[in-house]
Each structure stands twice: as C-alpha cells, then as structure tokens.
Amino acid sequence: MAIITLSSVDDCIAALHVVGLRVFRFTPWSMDIPEGLTALSEKYPDIKFYTFSTEDLTDEEDANIFYDCFGFGDVPNVTICKSGKCVEIIAGEMENMDDLIETTERMIQIHH
User: Fold this and answer.
1) Which range marks the domain in which residue 47 is found?
2) Which domain of life is it from (predicted)?
C-alpha cells in the first residue's frame, strides 16, 4: 500500500481525482457523528455510505472504489482503494470530525 502524507485538505481532494469516489465508509470507532452521515446520505442518495470495517467490504464492486476515514486522536487517515489497490493518506490538517464531514462533502461534490 502506498502511503502519502498530505499537508492540506485540498491535497486530499486532488488525490481523489485519481481514483474517483463512489463509496464512502467510516470505520465504527469514528462514528460519534451519525447525524452527519445521515445528512450526507440524504443529500447524495446515489452514493453509498458504510460504517463497517474493511474486512466486511469484500464482495462485488463496492470493494473496488471506496473512501475510508478513520481517526487516531485528532488525525484522521484516509484510505482510497480502486480495483484492490489502495493508497493511504494521512490528512494532518483535518483536526476534528466536523472538518472530516465538511471535507467529505467537498470530495463528494467534486465527484458527484
């Protein structure tokens, strides 16, 4: 897996241009904001949102393209996968879950 350290949210969005975005998934331990995901699901009904672990995302084409955010402390990591190849991004400037939701929405708007 390639690991890229990003210095800005814009870098993270630019990286998504390479793979596209069709499936968005939060890992369970970052799900202290279910209302935020519900709002995004309602706004973008054709994009799939998941809240389970990578191990559960194993079948059909949903496993080929997804965007994964999870946090250790205040630094979320982003994993972008397409056709079984993954790039992990450490998005150091997204300092809290509100920033993560806002950034996610910006990414969706670009690829929607």
Assistant:
1) 2-111
2) Eukaryota
